[in-house]
Amino acid sequence: MDKKKDIESKPAPGDDSCSAPLRRQFLCQSGKALLFTASYTVISVFAGASGARAGMCDAGCTSTCVQSCTSATTVVPDECQSCTSCISSCTSSCTKYCIAGCTSNCIASCTKWCTSGCCISCTKSTY
Amino acid sequence: MINGGEQNRGGRLVPSKNLLMLERGADELLLLNSIHNRPLYIPRGREQVKNYLETACLMESEDEVRRAFPEDGALLDMLLEHRIVLYEQQQQAGADLADRSHLGKARDDREAMSLYLLLAQSCNLGCVYCLNGRDTYHKDAGLKMDERVAFRSVERCLESLNENGRLEIVFFGGEPLLNWPLAKKIILHTQQLSKDRFPSRSVQYHLTSNLTIMPKDLIDWAKQYNMTFLCDIDGPPAVHDACRPYKNGKPSHHRTAANIEKLRKAGLPVALRSTITSVNQDLMLEIANHHRDLGGTGCALVPVNPINSDEDILSGEMLPQAEKLVQGLTAIHQSGLWQSDDLFPFNVYASHLRCGGRNVLGCGAPYGNTPVVDVGGDVYPCIYLVGIKRFYLGNIMANDYPDNRVLDWMMDYLHVDNMDECRNCAWRYICGGGCPVGKLTILGNPDADDKIKRYCNAIRCVYSRKTIELMLWEFAQKAAEQVFSELPKADGAAIEHTINC
């Protein structure tokens, strides 16, 4: 990694808060997340959004039959109810897909009580 | 435990076994764990991110990584959250493998079905690649479906849907318009049945036809019941007529195009489909253009299936080449002629690419969601499998339907973690193994030589993979455009309390 370039644009050591300078922040608007540094840009492509609407399928040649297929084949794990209030004890045994702004992975590393979903700011503040 | 990583926190990091790393241009990178399906797009800094990823996974622990690269903590958070990297113990516990708990459930709780009714098994065209075998379809016998078979089929499908399920009735053939009077009876019967017994289910009607025939009342009925259409147009007139002539060899394009125009003028949606063979493989972009010119509401480009219902194999000279299919597909996608939502196969894979979703099967056939009923009531799981006895699901008028043993076998055989050629492929949880028709129809066929096997595998794999790759870049591009359009100017205020959803 080219650390020199990064360091120039980084907040002070230990500053992991979400109010860090613009060039190093997470952004979530319209379901997208962004990490922007001097060295790289990383964008979360879906971040909770569903894919495009379904269309025709090849064999059936219909406008909607693909839904018959994808409603069965595309498996989105059940929503995790317990995790919407997001406590660390519930996440350790969670194998579900989490809504409310959090994934089970981020919750897993969260040691704070979150009331509105697990966010990077609370996760990061525990490091 | 699979997802949670709390007790593993700080442990050794490993890349997902399902990790896709796509590169484009000078500096772009796309990372995706296909079982988790949350892509990360790196529009710049490809080498930095790759180096970080590689280095991080060589270190002894997450703690060591964070100490060595404190300035990249946020990057590691994103990589972990999107399951690009995992804790080694998570991976050992099976986090990179799909569970099977949903498989049975999906069949018991159907949201949607597409019922294919072969109203007539004969046809007025003589397509060079026709899938309807002479023996199994009895093509020359003029067979037509009986209304009792049709009504019972609709009833059984409505019964098997969940409370708010959706049934699509597809009039299919042969050429279904050779039995148009029955289609009208089915519509009336279904409307009454829905009203009386299944008021919460919704029903749609669709006609797949060569549209060389145009009953006088077709437009009126189609408008009244919101019918959709699909018609095969294999290219401009000369190409189409070479592939899809009348039985007597005369050209059919002019008649079909004229009837498409009538439907279009009436405001009815007609999607157009092209069967790709060696005849038109070099013309895919031109075909997409032609579909647009004809006023199609959708465009589908489908490589020919090499085995018909009699299990006869198409001449090898007729098969398109996989690399040409990929070239054509790429050219059409890049041309922007069609939105991906209206362009097969892009629309299908777009629906697969759902955040957090995964596909262990390539289609709904093993769930019994796309039953095909022939004129005598025999049911098969897919229109490409009609007449092949090992896929027979029973007779709709008898108690032997559905024979779930067949579906169970398909589900097991086609599961991406069971197929030798798929189980170690990082793409498998997106493509679901692709359309399995070729794989199923060559199974046990003594006439299927290596060329046919390679072709079937290429269609299932190469074609699917290229489509997904193009879709992933398209989604990434859109996400970047959206994010950057919302990003404050360089001298603006930082956004606070930003949630990474």
Query: How would you spell out the order of helices and strands of chain A?
Result: HEEEHEHHH
Q: What is the 3D shape of chain B?
A: globular
The count of helical stretches of chain A stands at 5
Indicate the mean pLDDT of chain A: 43
Show unreliable segments of chain B.
Answer: 489-501
Strand numbers in spatial order across the main sheet of chain A = 1-2-3
Percent of sequence in beta strands of chain B: 15-25%
Please estimate the helix content of chain A: 10-25%
Structural class estimated from helices and strands of chain B: alpha/beta
Query: How big a fraction of the residues of chain A is strand?
Result: 5-15%
What structural class do you assign from the helix and strand content of chain A? alpha+beta
In terms of quaternary structure, the protein is heterodimer
Strands ordered across the widest β-sheet of chain B: 12-11-10-9-8-7-6-14-15-16
Q: How many helical elements of chain B? A: 18
Summed over residues and divided by their number, the pLDDT of chain B gives a mean of 89
Topology:
The complex is a heterodimer of chains A (127) and B (501).
Chain A: H1 3-9, E1 26-29, E2 32-36, E3 41-44, H2 65-73, E4 74-75, H3 88-91, H4 104-108, H5 120-124
Antiparallel strand pairs in A: 1-2, 2-3
Chain B: E1 13-15, E2 19-24, E3 28-33, E4 40-44, H1 46-58, H2 62-68, H3 73-81, E5 85-87, H4 88-92, H5 102-108, E6 110-118, H6 134-137, H7 147-160, E7 161-172, H8 180-197, E8 202-208, H9 218-224, E9 228-232, H10 237-243, H11 253-265, E10 270-276, H12 284-293, E11 298-303, H13 322-335, E12 343-344, H14 346-352, E13 358-359, E14 372-373, E15 378-380, E16 394-395, H15 404-414, H16 428-431, H17 437-442, H18 450-486
Parallel strand pairs in B: 6-7, 6-14, 7-8, 8-9, 9-10, 10-11, 11-12
Antiparallel strand pairs in B: 1-5, 2-3, 3-4, 14-15, 15-16
